[in-house]
UniProtKB/TrEMBL annotation:
Domain TRPM-like residue range list: 97-352
Entry keywords, A to Z: Membrane, Transmembrane, Transmembrane helix
Gene Ontology biological-process entries: metal ion transport
Designated name of the protein: LSDAT_euk domain-containing protein
InterPro entries hit by this protein: TRPM, TRPM-like
Pfam families assigned to the protein according to its UniProt record, in alphabetical order: TRPM2
One Gene Ontology molecular-function label: monoatomic cation channel activity
Main subcellular location: membrane
Keyword set includes Transmembrane: yes
Topology with respect to the bilayer: Multi-pass membrane protein
Example of a GO cellular component annotation carried by this entry: plasma membrane
Statement: the UniProt record of this protein carries the keyword Membrane: yes
Subcellular location: Membrane
Length: 352
């Protein structure tokens, strides 16, 4: 009976995970007490309760290392379990066990899967330092691997920006393989526990593909939307440029989030950014211009973008008023100083 169920689930989609493999895996699990958990599924049990039980069962395994624990929790979208279980031994212990290469892949996964709470967790605990995380290659890769880039594509088309494609490269393929294959070969999770994780988290094999856009295309779009934009980092990804770090990573990720309709992430990066007031006004302009690009029938999308613009506008205004109450001279300087990244734009014209 169990073999029949496993075969019906497998459906021949992946020859590697057959019904026989599933039976063998279950037999191996039953030989290890620490891999077995009991859960009573009754009428009072909710889907949330069941998800949490599965997650706790995986995390309690003594052979599962913190890198895998964090990744499992991310896939389930359960930051509460991270805080309750993974942090139980303290932040310093967690930092000592986490590997930078794995953490960068986890951050990229969290960004692409729109897990704002996990991104904030990684930043606040300084598990990932954004000043060394975001380089030219990574930002280009993020733009090209968002699951739904329809709003960005619509905006590019509306403003007449020709999408400049880049050929597939070893750099892009390596980044894709590293992040998509979330269980790296150097995992400390051993034996059967690793097989459980692999079955749970396995994604379809990822092939190197042609990038549908690049940073010069995004630069041209920002120039047309804002009237002025200039950044030497928005260049083609090459062996020489791919590791160039952005001096203001939160600004670049804010723009990425706004253009890809990831509003919670945009607000998070805005709060972390150094120049919050000008960036907020830039965001207002971007939301306004994106809303204009949407089809007239997409009233829901237009309302959402208008609300985001209004929130940024009001919060930026409150920040300016607070600055003025502390020092009117500094507030005026803040509004009048030219912004180099934005081609000499000043806050005052942007606010009009």
């Amino acid at each position: 009976m169990l073999t029949g169920l496993l075969r019906s689930e497998a459906g021949g989609k992946d020859a590697e995970w057959t019904a026989e493999t599933g039976i063998s895996l279950l037999e191996s699990i039953m030989e290890h007490e620490n891999l077995v958990s009991c859960f009573v599924l009754d009428e009072m049990s909710s889907g949330d309760t069941f998800d949490k039980a599965i997650l706790y069962a995986l995390i309690k395994s003594s052979t599962t290392d913190p890198n895998d624990q964090l990744l499992i929790a991310l896939k389930f979208g359960r930051i509460d379990v991270v805080q309750e279980e993974i942090l139980s031994k303290g932040v310093n212990y967690l930092k000592s066990r986490m590997r930078p290469s794995r953490l960068k892949a986890i951050m990229s996964t969290a960004l692409l899967e729109d897990r704002t709470e996990f991104v904030q967790f990684l930043i606040d605990l300084e598990l990932v330092k954004m000043q060394t995380y975001l380089d030219v290659g990574t930002l280009n890769w993020l733009y090209n691997n968002v699951d739904d880039a329809s709003i960005l594509k619509t905006t590019l088309n509306y403003y007449g920006v020709v999408i400049k494609q880049s050929p597939p490269s070893l750099i892009g393929a390596a980044l894709m393989a590293t992040t998509a294959n979330v269980l790296s070969m150097d995992t400390e999770t051993a034996g059967e526990a690793n097989r459980v994780l692999e079955m749970l988290l396995q994604r379809g094999r990822v092939r190197a593909k042609r990038d549908w856009t690049n940073l010069p295309t995004i630069s041209e779009l920002l120039l047309k939307m804002l009237g002025s934009f200039s950044s030497i980092h928005y260049a083609e990804v090459t062996t020489f440029t791919r590791q160039h770090l952005f001096p203001e990573p939160f600004q670049e990720l804010f723009i990425w989030a706004v253009l890809n309709n990831r509003n919670a992430l945009a607000m998070l990066f805005w709060r972390y950014a150094d120049d919050a007031v000008p960036l907020g006004l830039i965001g207002c302009n971007l939301y306004h211009k994106i809303a204009r690009a949407l089809p007239t029938y997409d009233t829901e999308g237009q309302i959402m973008l208008t609300n985001q613009k209004s929130y940024l506008e009001q919060t930026s205004k409150e920040m300016i008023e607070l600055c003025y109450s502390k020092s009117n001279e500094k507030a005026i300087y803040l509004l009048e100083r030219p912004l180099s990244t934005w081609g000499g734009h000043r806050c005052m014209p942007l606010a009009v």
